[in-house]
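Can anyone check this?
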Amino acid sequence: MSAPPYTTARVEVVRVPAGEAHDLVAVEEPLELRIGGEAVAVTMRTPGHDKELALGFALSEGLRPTAARLPGDLAANTVELEADGFDRERMRRSFYTSSSCGVCGKGALDAVAVEAPAVTSDLRVAAAVIGALPQRLRAAQPAFAATGGLHATGLFTPTGDLLCLREDVGRHNAMDKVIGWAFLEGRLPLAGSMLVVSGRLSFELVQKAAVAGCPIVAAVGAPSSLAVELARDRAITLCGFVRGGRLNVYSEQWRIDR
């Protein structure tokens, strides 16, 4: 499996002590999101699956997108979203809440509660299955294998089968792409699936999982304090440090069969 050419770029590098050489790095470019022809956000991302990214982003911000397409003027690095009842001021407040969640955790939790009800899924998964997911995720990351510079999010079945994997320089973008894919496939809410991320778990990633209705979120790395608090508030099973068959379960432990 090789990385798509648009996700990597060749650059000159000096290797010490070997000398001059070339290296592959992950591509990072801006993506402008428009609604009604008006720019509403710009995110830095790895090109590829841009419509999924736009849809997942919109859903995570509490919008109600119906479709995503290339703009009429064919502007590069731009996606036009169709979203009924778009409220720019409401979106601005959502951005402020997300950016200030470390200062005002209660406000951030309240904002998520408005858009994402507590997850009611009765899904249960064997600990051994979850313990094996990071390795399966890593095996399906061609761009990371080529560059070492990309995050990944994978959507898995309860038996550990990979449904969708997306890579990106931004961990939040990778999850938005997966959620956008699930939206296009008619799989939302993700009540019978698991999300796995290649790095750490931040508040923002758990927020996106909550909006998508996903009951189990696992990560190779550590969760933040607010990520744990949000997972407990929204009844999400949060697993961190999933490595070598081991894992820490921070919330809703009853979903993990040991």
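Reply from J.R.: I decoded it. The first strand starts at residue 8 and ends at 15.
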